[in-house]
Predict the structure.
Amino acid sequence: MATGDYSAKSGYKAQFELLLFEEAENPTISIDWSANVWDIKTSEKIKVFLWNALQDALPVGEQFAVRNIPLSIRCSRCNEEETVSHLLFTCPYSRKVWKLAPLATSIDVDRVKNTSAGMKIIRRIPSLPLVGLGPGTLTASICWNLWIVRNQLTFQKRDFSPEETLSKAIREAREWSLAQISPINPKLRPPSINQDPPPSTDVPCMYTDAAWNASIGCAGLGWIIDDTTSSSSSYSATAIFVKSPLFAETLAMRRAMTSAIDKGITSLLILSDSQILIKLLNTRGRKLEIAGLLNDIYLLSNAFNAIQFKFIPTEYNDRADSVAKQALYIMS
Ligand SMILES: [Zn+2]
């Protein structure tokens, strides 16, 4: 059974491919970009903001000059004339944020001649697969947060680093995206994990683990699938913007589950040496720090006929541990 998370991702992919196709087939296609703002997968608040940005209706310096308002027409950060496209794209600060952003395609800010050109580019770009956001969702959140931090600097003299602005944009985009998967839809309701019958001995086992580097906020994720029909296979992935070891362990588990689904595994025993995580999963608990990831795991559980989460002591999890450490080592 497909899960909400999964169908949403393939929907994004299809949408992205369709847009590329549209462009390839119709190089001269003319689209009313301002109207298309309403199709971006983001909150209503951000759509209204983008609409205003495209109408040049944001109160930036340029507008102060047009309306003879005696406020600075210069950017508070770089002293250039402050236009909407400067604020959202070409300001050195905004360039840094776009450069850091985990996007599937990097944004060439030098190609952005005006706000409309910028929107044309950003609305088609999804995040990197690991972040799991479709075309426009993260980029719209970045634009919105660039506006928010600009206002905080201009009016409250509070400054945020490009990294802080980006982290907030990613967090808000993910929260919005996950909230679109209705938790009260009965089809998507998490199964009662504890009530699943214990898997028999011929059920595949999956060992998951993570290695975390606090100083760079990165994690290596590792998992081993001991399939009953074939020999065991090991897998790894990496993640950025990882806040804690528990966050890393939960990411590893989510990533491992999607990998098992890709392999067509329908019954699974998942083993982890994170006692906190296993306890949360088995009590269907909530924890703010990993709330979104836990939701994903509950949703992904729907894809299995039988699934069980079990704690194992670290010494029995050495294979997944070493795969995770190797992945982190390559990143650091
Ligand atoms: Zn500037």
